[in-house]
Amino acid sequence: EAGVITAARKYSSKLVKAEADHNETLVKNFHPTVKPLKLTKYLASLLLPPAEYGPRYILNPFAGSGSEMIGAMLAGWDHIVGIEREKEFSNLALQRIEYWKGKAHV
Question: What is the value of pTM for the model shown?
Answer without folding.
Answer: 0.73
